[in-house]
Amino acid sequence: MNPPGTAETPENASGGVLIVALPGMGPERPLEPEGVDPESWTEMLERPRGLITATQVDRGPYVRRALAWLSSAGFDVNAASRHFAVMTWPGPSEDACEDSSAHNASGRRMVPPEAKGARLPRWLAANAQGFLEVSARRRPKLVVFLSGAMLEATESPELASSVTDIYGPPQTPPCRLTDTRLAVWAQRRREALFLALPVSAAQATPAFEAALAEGLGRLLRTMAPASTAGADTRPRTHLVRGEHAHEG
Questions:
Q1: Tens digits of residue pLDDT in 55-80
Q2: What is the pairing mode between strands 142-145 and 17-21?
Q3: Taking Cα atoms as reference points, which of 58, 86, 84 lies closest to residue 71?
Q4: Alpha-carbon distance 141 to 124, whole Å?
Q5: Which residues, at least 6 apart from 23, have a Cβ–Cβ distance to it below 8 Å?
Q6: I need a surface site. Which of 69, 100, 130, 222 has the fewest CB within 10 A?
Q7: Residues in contact with 36: Cβ distance below 8 Å, sequence separation at least 6, in sequence order
């Protein structure tokens, strides 16, 4: 199933942190009770609820890992918990493809086999309406993609203009934050910071996690207000309070 969304708060309604997952990145779906419609059961399980740190809401291993990686880099997830929102790209209602292989048993949209690997960015770009709508409504300051293919899709000819309308033009090209086999990418936009985390955890060695913490931590420190750069010990929540620096 998809990761359940978060409850609406004033902090995530505008200028917050948006975690963007691929279909199926949520927790294992428990079997529906006898007589309950499978699709209705899935919708109930995926309904938005709780803050991102709510222990009673299982959003799956991908979201948990992303939060752990952010924390390791010095981003205080607990202090910023009300700023987080979660979405799936594409969402379950975006059914441009009617191929049954692109849906699971509960009717949820999945990444079709022919769109995996190098073809994933193009598929995402063709199914981006939900991402654009949520982006335009929430205007997040930090976007955490749970796949590097999503960042690549935002620069595709099909999406580049629409993404720029919402997030502003790129201030830097995508830059790699790790020198390990697994890549973490970041890109500054005029109105936001894009961060792309790797999908696979099988190669998340201690060396990778150390490189991620160092590279992402260094990036977050450079985004601090100039008056406190180098001496800022506050929780790393300034990115979601509109203090995002625009220097190149």
A1: 999 999 999 999 999 999 999 999 99
A2: parallel
A3: 84
A4: 21
A5: 2, 88, 90, 92, 108, 109, 110, 111
A6: 100
A7: none
pLDDT at 100: 41
Q: Are 25 and 63 in contact (CB under 8 A)?
A: yes
Number of neighbouring beta carbons within 10 Å of residue 29: 18
Shortest CA distance to 90 belongs to which of 118, 112, 60?
112
Contacts of 118 (CB under 8 A, 6+ apart): none
Token representation of residue 31: 């079997």
Strand partners, 119: none
Report the run of H or E that residue 137 belongs to, with start and end. helix 129-138
Cα separation of 159 and 124, whole Å? 10
Distance CA 187, CA 218 (A): 14
For residues 40 and 118, what is the distance between their CA atoms, to the nearest angstrom?
A: 33
pTM for the structure as a whole? 0.84
CA 37, 41, 42, 47 dihedral sign is positive
| Pairing between β-strand 175-176 and β-strand 185-188 as defined by DSSP bridges | antiparallel
* Lowest pLDDT segment from 14-23, 67-76, 101-110, 112-121: 101-110
Say if residue 43's pLDDT is above 60: yes
User: Computed from CA positions of residues 167, 74, 212, 55, in that sequence, does the dihedral angle turn out positive or negative?
Assistant: negative
Q: 3-class SS at 109? A: strand
User: How far is residue 141's CA from residue 243's CA, in Å, rounded to a whole number?
Assistant: 9
CA proximity to 24, closest of 99, 116, 98, 96: 116
Q: Can the peptide bond before residue 169 be classed as cis, meaning omega within 30 degrees of 0?
A: no
Token code pair at residue 36? 């309950």
